[in-house]
Amino acid sequence: MFTLEGKTFVIMGVANKRSIAWGIAQSLDKAGANLIFTYAGQRFEKPVRDLVETLEGKHDLLLPCDVTNDEDVKACFDEIGKRVGKIDGLAHCIAFAKTEELSGNFSDTSREGFLLAHNISSFSLTVVAKHAKPLMTEGGSIVTLTYLGGERVVPNYNIMGVAKASLDMSVRYLANDLGQHNIRVNAISAGPIRTLSAKGVSDFNSVLKEIEERAPLRRNTTQEEVGDTALFLFSHLSRGITGETIHCDSGYHIL
Ligand code: NDP
Ligand code: N5H
Predict the structure, then answer these.
(1) Which residues lie in coiled coils (predicted)?
(2) CB–CB of 101/163 below 8 Å?
(3) pLDDT confidence of residue 24
(4) Please, what sign has the CA dihedral across residues 204, 207, 213, 217?
(5) Which domains does the chain have, with CATH numbers?
(6) Phi first, then psi: what are they for 186, rounded to 5°?
(7) What's the alpha-carbon Rg for the chain, to the nearest Å?
(8) Nearest ligand 1 atom to alpha carbon 120
(9) E strand or H helix at 168, and its extent?
């Protein structure tokens, strides 16, 4: 097993222990990395802090960062710079769309809902990369999370599919832009996982069942599998890979 000892990573988007960001945090923690966590608003600090205390390593730095607010993002990375100086990577595990726009007719998507989904789920990667870049003085790796619904039409994913397509292309433009600084930018396209975001999706059980029946590996994706894929993308082992989307979805995307 390789080690990430002495390396520092920022994890954005832990809501609770089911979050994919938490799977990533656990994999990086096991590899000996130093972790910094960001959460959306002050009221989320306590639950995230309680979770972080269960990790093997001691990770003290938790900061608020609402990605819709430029000043918040700048202040967050300024503080990280002051506290640790250099970072080696960042996991962007953030998305949001209005519940009412995640079912029904896509043509009913509102202007406000369209812009909100793109602001939080897509533009946030670019603004975060801009502020993380000066801290990646020895190169770095940025990893975001995407879903198949950004490549092809998946029932009810609706506005999130369009936002993920924008996110996927942002990964490629950012990879091209930041590659000269030895900063790599990649996405993991995860299979469906029951997280807080997935809560309220009415037919989630049937989505999971379809994967069990049809995906090449005949099983659903786990938080740990995505965590270990991120670990690879954050490690020296993936040093030649940028602008890529790795599907960690039991192979479902080939069907
Ligand atoms: P979670 O609900 O656990 O995580 C979503 C996170 O987005 C939360 O931590 C939430 O923060 C954060 N967030 C929302 N709005 C903002 C904001 N304005 N500023 C900062 N953070 C914000 O769900 P997942 O782990 O499932 O989602 C993580 C990523 O994985 C998303 O990009 C999602 O699209 C993607 N993904 C998920 C799949 C799944 O099946 N679950 C499949 C493929 C991709 P807070 O709680 O503090 O509001
Ligand atoms: C095809 C599907 C099922 C239908 C679509 C689901 C889309 C989910 C993604 C978005 C991000 C979920 C979302 O924004 C939920 C919010 O409206 C309400 N929830 C919240 O506000 C909670 C409290 C917070 C923590 O959530 C966020 N996001 O801040 C897709 C599924 C098969 C796979 C999937 C679930 C993909 C994905 O992108 O997450």
Answers:
(1) none
(2) no
(3) 98
(4) negative
(5) 8-248 (3.40.50.720)
(6) -140, 160
(7) 17
(8) 18
(9) helix 158-178
CA angle 23, 231, 152 (to 5 degrees): 75
In this structure, the strands spanning 34-39 and 245-248 are unpaired
Pocket test for ligand 1, best of 17, 42, 62, 94 (most atoms within 8 A of CB): 94
* pLDDT for residue 221 is more than 90: yes
pLDDT tens-digit map of 122-152? 999 999 999 999 999 999 999 999 999 999 9
Chain-centre distance for alpha carbon 213: 27
Q: If you measure from the C-alpha of residue 117 to the centroid of ligand 2, how many angstroms do you get, rounded to a whole number?
A: 11
Task: Return d(Cα 156, Cα 103) in angstroms, integer.
Answer: 4
Q: Which atom of ligand 1 is nearest to the CA of 144?
A: 32
The counts of H helices and E strands in the chain are 8, 7
DSSP string for 82-120: HHHS---EEEE------GGGSSS-GGG--HHHHHHHHII
pLDDT per position as a tens digit, 81-90? 999 999 999 9
